[in-house]
Structures are given as structure tokens and as C-alpha cells.
């Protein structure tokens, strides 16, 4: 397939681009390179993606990037809940207007499949396991922007586009050095010999999903015959305290822990019910937390944090 990956220079995008190229797809990227670094990490790969540098909310860039594509994976976004509260207008531009503009480009270009990176933030405050039949209730501009995207993507069958929204759990893995997420932070601190930082009791839980498992799910979604919304995760509920122990085991350190007051918007518990994704996409995650942490740490050690 000829696949446009927006946000292809970011964490999930950079992993996905390699994955799709290795699986025989032709890949183009649309990214404004506002997060991470320039994609030098593609290094000596024989097949490289074509890079269109531009904003997703810019109609000319979106049209140029979607032209000739069979499918779009729309990842480009300002990803933080806290950032969206601090800068809602930026969230609107990139995440709402950006999603509209890329989908509009896809419609004009006759693209058949559109895969959208959504988030559990559309269900903020819901009691887990998170399921697709729960009523959405975003509590941040970020969550609201993802809900808008899901709606638009679901409605795009009126244009002959099959739209699939994937609500990623907490994704981690290589090429994440620029991320502020808990696993990226913990591993960077372990390597720097600094204490791990826990906000609150550490009993808050998350569902940690290795990025390679996201890539396999996206590839399945590219072959979807009908539209849908699916939670992607492992279904395993892991507390931050358990994560600390796993990081200590994998890194062979008995690192110190610093405790800070809980952050106000932090969900107490989160994990997903992945039965719909299993059924409809024939997808299951394969990498458990320990293996995923080991592979991420290995990348961080070998690259010293290079890459997007
Ligand atoms: N990483 C996670 O745990 C997670 C969880 C849920 C959902 N998501 C979603 O997955 C997607 C990818 O997340 P990520 O972790 O790779 O984030 P990231 O910040 O590493 O990547 C985002 C990419 O989008 C690009 N970008 C941002 N604004 C842009 C704009 N206006 N125009 C063009 N490019 C722009 C950035 O340069 C970057 O390369 C996002 O949509 C995010 O909301 C991620």
C-alpha cells in the first residue's frame, strides 16, 4: 500500500514508518518536525520514506501529502493533556483543524482507508476497563479534540473512506527520548543515575503498550473492511510502584525514588478491555512489560537518546 503517515517523525510515527517499510509498504510522511528531531535515525536504510515538511492544518501541505496515497495513518498532534489545558488554541489548530484538513485532503485524493490515533482521554474519569460502548466524557481540550477526530473519521464513509480510530493506551518503546511519559522518564533517569520521580502514592495504574504492538495493530487497521473504534492496550493493570520495581529489575539498579505531590488531572486507574480489537482486527499484543522495558532500555543505552 502507499501510506501517508502524518506525525511520522514522532515517537509512534518513526517506529511505524520503519515497520511499514519493512513490511513492503511505500511510505510518505507529513510532519512539521515540531517534536523530536529531524529523522536522521533512518540512517542507511535502503528504502526511505518520502518526507513532506508542513503543518497538518495547512490545506496545501495536506493536499500535497495525500495525493496518490491509498491510505492515511493520522498521528500528527500535540499529544499532551496538560499542554492542551495550557495552550488550548494550539491543541485546536493541530488536533482539530489538523484532523479536518488531513481528512479533507484524503477525500479529495480518493484515499480509501483512514486510521486515526485516538486516546483513552476521550473517556477521562471512566472506571476501567475502558470499553468502546462507554459514553465519551473528555475532561481536557486534548480529549475533546480526539473525540472530534473520532466523529469525523466515523462519518467519512459518506466520502467512501473506511475510517478506523484506535485509542492507544500508554505507549512506550524505542525512539521515545523526547517524550515526557512515565516510562521514558524513568529510563532516562536510571541511565543518568538520578532518582525515579513518583507523583502521589504510586498506586495509580496504567496500561503500558509496547510500540511494536501498536504498529501491528495499525497494519491490521489498514486492512479493515469496515469502520470502527477500538481500544488498544494489553489489558494488564500496572501500578506506578510495580513499574518502578520492573524498571529496577530490568536495569539491575536499586535506584532511589523521589516522591512529589499527586498531579491534579492524573487518573487513579486506567487499563483497557481489548476484546473488540482482538475480535475485529484479529490483533493481540505480544510484548510483555519486562521485555518491552528491556528493549527500550537497550535502545536508550545504545543511542544515548538520539532519534526523534
Ligand atoms: N504516546 C502515547 O502514549 C499516546 C497515547 C495515546 C494517543 N497517542 C496519540 O498518538 C499520536 C502520536 O503520538 P506520539 O507519542 O508519537 O507523539 P510525538 O509528539 O512523538 O509525535 C507527534 C508528531 O506530530 C508532529 N506534529 C505535531 N503537530 C503537528 C502539526 N501541526 N503539523 C504537522 N506535524 C505535527 C510532531 O512533529 C511529531 O513528529 C498522537 O496523535 C497522540 O495524541 C499517543
In short:
With 308 residues, the protein is of the alpha/beta class.
Record keyword descriptors for this entry.
single chain; 308 residues; alpha/beta; seven-stranded parallel beta sheet; two-stranded parallel sheet; binds nicotinamide-adenine-dinucleotide
Number of helices: 10
Strand content: 15-25%
Residue share in helices?
Answer: 25-40%
Low-confidence stretches: none
Per the CATH scheme, the topology name of the domain at 2-171 and 208-233 and 271-285 is Rossmann fold
Instruction: State the end-to-end distance.
Output: 25 Å
Total beta strand runs: 13
CATH classification class of the domain at 2-171 and 208-233 and 271-285: Alpha Beta
CATH superfamily of the domain at 2-171 and 208-233 and 271-285: NAD(P)-binding Rossmann-like Domain
SSE order in H/E notation? Answer: EHEEHEHHEHEEHEEEHEEHEHH
Small-molecule binders = nicotinamide-adenine-dinucleotide
Structure description:
This protein has about 300 residues and is an alpha/beta fold. It has a domain at about 1-170 and about 210-235 and about 270-285: NAD(P)-binding Rossmann-like Domain (Rossmann fold, 3-Layer(aba) Sandwich), CATH 3.40.50.720. About 40% of the residues lie in helices and about 20% in strands. It is built from 10 helices and 13 strands. It has helices spanning about 10-20, 60-65, 80-85, 90-110, 140-155, 180-190, 210-220, 240-250, 275-280, 290-305, and strands at about 1-5, 25-30, 50-55, 70-75, 115-120, 160-170, 170, 195-200, 205, 210, 230, 240, 255-260. The chain has a 7-stranded parallel sheet with strand order 3-2-1-4-5-6-11, sandwiched between helices. Strands 7-10 form a two-stranded parallel ribbon. Strand 1 (about 1-5), helix 1 and strand 2 (about 25-30) form a beta-alpha-beta unit. Helix 4 packs parallel to helix 5 (about 140-155). The longest helix has 22 residues, at about 90-110. The mean pLDDT is about 95. The structure holds nicotinamide-adenine-dinucleotide. The site of nicotinamide-adenine-dinucleotide has 28 residues, from helix 1, helix 4, strand 5 and strand 7.
Amino acid at each position: 500500500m502507499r501510506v501517508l503517515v502524518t506525525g511520522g517523525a514522532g515517537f509512534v510515527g518513526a517506529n511505524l514508518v520503519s515497520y511499514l517499510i519493512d513490511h513492503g509498504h511505500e511510505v510518505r510522511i507529513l510532519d512539521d518536525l515540531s517534536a523530536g528531531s529531524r529523522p536522521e535515525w533512518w540512517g542507511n536504510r535502503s528504502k526511505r520514506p518520502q518526507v513532506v515538511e508542513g503543518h497538518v492544518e495547512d490545506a496545501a501541505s495536506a493536499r500535497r501529502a495525500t495525493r496518490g496515497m491509498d491510505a492515511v495513518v493520522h498521528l500528527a498532534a500535540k499529544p499532551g493533556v496538560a499542554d492542551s489545558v495550557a495552550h488550548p488554541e494550539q491543541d485546536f489548530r493541530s488536533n482539530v483543524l489538523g484532523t479536518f484538513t488531513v481528512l479533507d485532503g484524503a477525500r479529495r485524493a480518493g484515499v480509501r482507508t483512514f486510521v486515526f490515533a485516538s486516546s483513552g482521554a476521550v473517556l477521562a474519569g471512566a472506571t476501567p476497563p475502558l470499553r468502546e460502548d462507554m459514553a465519551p466524557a473528555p475532561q481536557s481540550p486534548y480529549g475533546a479534540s480526539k473525540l472530534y477526530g473520532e466523529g469525523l473519521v466515523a462519518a467519512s464513509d459518506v466520502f467512501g473512506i473506511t475510517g478506523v480510530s484506535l485509542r492507544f493506551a500508554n505507549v512506550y518503546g524505542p525512539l521515545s527520548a523526547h517524550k515526557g511519559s512515565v516510562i521514558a522518564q524513568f529510563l532516562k533517569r536510571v541511565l543518568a543515575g538520578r532518582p525515579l520521580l513518583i507523583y502521589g502514592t504510586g498506586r495509580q495504574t496504567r496500561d503500558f503498550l509496547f510500540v511494536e504492538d501498536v504498529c501491528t495493530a495499525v497494519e491490521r487497521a489498514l486492512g479493515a473492511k469496515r469502520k470502527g473504534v477500538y481500544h488498544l492496550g494489553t489489558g494488564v493493570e500496572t501500578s506506578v510502584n510495580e513499574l518502578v520495581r520492573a524498571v529496577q529489575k530490568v536495569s539491575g539498579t536499586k535506584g532511589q525514588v523521589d516522591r512529589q505531590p499527586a498531579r491534579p488531572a492524573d487518573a487513579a486507574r486506567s487499563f483497557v478491555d481489548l476484546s473488540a480489537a482482538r475480535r475485529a482486527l484479529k490483533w493481540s499484543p505480544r510484548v510483555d512489560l519486562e521485555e518491552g522495558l528491556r528493549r527500550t532500555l537497550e535502545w536508550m543505552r545504545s543511542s544515548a537518546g538520539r532519534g526523534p
